[in-house]
Amino acid sequence: GAEAYIISPKNGATVKSPFIVQFGLKSMGVAPAGVKFENTGHHHLLIDTDAPADSNTPLPVTDQIRHFGKGQTEVKLELPPGKHTLQLLLGDQNHIPHNPAVMSKKITITVAG
Questions:
Q1: With left for phi above 0 and alpha for psi between -120 and 50, is residue 27 left, alpha or beta?
Q2: Distance of alpha carbon 43 from its chain centroid, rounded?
Q3: Is residue 45 within 8 Å of 109, Cβ to Cβ?
Q4: Can you say whether residue 13 is alpha, beta or left, with left for phi > 0 and alpha for psi between -120 and 50 degrees?
Q5: Residues 6 or more apart in contact with residue 96 via CB below 8 angstroms
Q6: What's the sign of the alpha-carbon dihedral 3, 8, 12, 15?
Q7: Rounded Cα distance, 32 and 74, in Å
Q8: pLDDT tens per residue across span 33-44
Q9: 106, 85 contact by CB (below 8 A)
Q10: Quick check: pTM over 0.70?
Q11: How would you label 12-43 residue by residue, b for 16+ Cβ within 10 Å and e otherwise?
Q12: Secondary structure string (H, E, C) spanning 3-31
């Protein structure tokens, strides 16, 4: 029953860059990367991309897959004007997505010019 979700911004929101993205998590705890603790993980923010098809390997660090391995629960994000998608994916101590995946719904936001 674990669930990751984006607290803010809301789906369909128009924001001005930079803006804060707040991460939510139910029925699990947040722990830094490298810390093995039952029912915990850390957030990865997927920007304008889908979750990788192979969920048995560590998530790569890219501009589209941001890692929050210190256990952060929000980020100040700067994105160019236009429409963007955001989605959270929880990873274990080795950045490997949980099975089943603990992933938020994908939201669409518009960054004002």
A1: left
A2: 5
A3: no
A4: beta
A5: 55, 56, 57, 58, 59
A6: negative
A7: 14
A8: 999 999 999 999
A9: yes
A10: yes
A11: eeebeeebebebebeebebbebeeeeeebbbb
A12: EEEEEECCCCCEECCCEEEEEEEECCEEC
